[in-house]
Amino acid sequence: LPSTPCPPAPSASASASAAAAAAAAVRESMSELTVAEVRRHMDASGFSAAFIRPSSDNGRLESGLIISWVQTRGRLEKGSGDSGKDLVMMREGGFPEVLLSGVAGLSEAVFSPSGVSFAVQTKDALLLGDTADLSTRSWVTLRAGESFAGRPTWVREESVLFAVSGGEPKRDRLFMHKRGQIKSERGGPLFVAAHGGALLNWDHSQDEDDAAHIAVVHRLPDAMLAEIVLMDHRDRGLDDRSGSKVVAVDCRQEYCTPQVGFLAPDALDGPPGPSLLLRLNALPLLNGGHLCDAERLKTLPKDAVKEAVHGLWLIEDLKAPRLSPVHMGPPNRIDVFSGSYGRPGAAEGFRLDPSRCRVFLSARTTGTEQQADGVPISYSDDLYELSAAAEGDGSLELLPLRTATHEGGPGKGCKIPVAYGETGGDRGQGEVLVVYHHRSPTARGDLWLASQSKPNRFCSWRGGASGREARLTKTMPLSLQRKLLTPTEVMVRNEAAPHCGGKALPIHALRFAPEGDGPLQPLLWLHGGPMCQLSFDYNPLLSWLASCGYLVLAPNFSGSTGNGLGFMNRVMADGCGVADLSDCLACAEYLKTEARKVEPRLDTSRGVAVAGHSWGGYLASMCLLQHVGGESVFSCGVSMAGIADWYVQQRHTEVRYYDYALMGGWVYEKEVAARAREASPITRAAELRAPILVLHGDKDIDVPFQQVPPFVEALRRSTHGGAAVEYHAYPGEGHGIAGTEAQADVLDRLRTFLRVNLKPWDFTDNPHGEVAAY
User: pTM for the full model?
Assistant: First the structure.
């Protein structure tokens, strides 16, 4: 055949340039998060694990590690938020297996102490599972109108404690169910919550008699309060209440959920009998001891509750219960919980080993001071073991576990202990293994395993490079992980903070910025709550906002958790809409001044924007109504599901206890009425001097929709030239927008509004997406 001349081969530099351009185009097309990724339509949660210890007569099962999680399927349309969940398990050396598929209301697997059995709750039943063949069967069937509350707790190997809500009576109720008991036969409840109250968690002692002691965390109708009830059922029927006694009161349960756990005799070199470990926000009394009567709190001065102390506590003698603090450093300087704005991925709280002799927990140093090197205290966790102090004086101390601090670990983030194992030797002498859940801004959350002593087969099984640390699950797509940004933790100083005696108040914040050279406009994003926190945690929305070309600052303002009870209390009563608002104004000043020194791409030519959802939406409205020199402090803002009128809010909300605590009373009370008016955005709505976007679901009962149309009408009465109001109500949507189409619409409106009102315009890119024509 006649030869065809070949085209000249491209030079190496041209090939490299073309490859780089192609890679850049691919990265650009893949860099933006989708609606499903931002709204977490597909997710893995409910992680659990166990080190199986079969009995000698169980020949079907070998010892080893088993892990489990719940995979949430993507939502297809409005109303299908629970379209199906899968229960996945994986045994040592094996592959993931789906045990249950497309199940509504599926909870995590809760393993028995030996790991040979597990319990799972669904929408209709409590299932009993066998880890030998990964089979399940119905164990307890719910009655009409009932649903499960909380997670079940094993009583050794033969029974579980579980709670239900709804049905008759319409209150949370605690039950016990034994192996072999007919699923339709249920005895009387062990405990019934008060009307408007709830059962948060519970535990049992491991005595020979079934549940000789039961401890219950009972949230009261005034839901800032919870009582710890201790029940002794030894030698009496389960329906006999004569042995019940309130042994402690948590005065600020919104800071973190109270938790109880029975320790075995001699645990932590403690008392010879069983003892009770508690995580509480307890109130010390002047005459010694701690508050154990919620009714007595009403007789104390209003500010007395601000003296509550967060931490771990111990009741050593169950017959004569008395709280003793576990000393972990200065009061209110150590948080013993892993704070999360969304779902934490695993059951949060301290974890006991199967023998109930060792305690593992998440903890972090709190406070607004900076460390010696000038770096702000981090909103990330470390794992600790609670141990008898080396001094031998009977005190306890926190010992850091070997996790994430060396090469091969997951790094900085939020951690929750999940399971404990020990191989070889007597108790305390073998190899210590800890399974924990880790999440971070670029990691949705997975299980890791760490050895506290030496390389082991478990870490080697999962490919741990060091043999001491290994990632057990990989449930997050790499395509999603590559789109996420790692924020910088910064400290913003509020020089004008109220109630600080003239001292500056440092505010912790996360600062998100995308890669590249283009200019970034400043956006202040405010979280909901306010009794929540933005930890060094997974939050794809903030990455999405930054990837749209903004420098996003997300502060933990006054009222946030994770910085000590005193910091949360700043937003109560006369601090509501005052202390938190002051922190937001300080953040605006930071973005206009200090942030420019560390981020040269920052462009403030069109000012600073503010946006948020729920409490963040409320604060965004308050921020937009602040003026200096006749001009708005913020150039534009977005209020999503935000409070507008405290009178309507307290009257119609389903979380009235929360708003009662925030306002410091009822809005009709004389000393509260003026405060409620001052803290309501609708009071000054007609003074709007900047563009605002208001988004709200018309079925919202947390922040009732009734207050929104009058607020929008008041905003539109503003005659200032800079004022502009965009408003959209979502039919059928509640406090959190659930419909897929509605979620996409929210993100689209948010992106367009900020593009029009915050980014500079030019001659080729129209803010509405069209190309200019001449």
Answer: 0.89
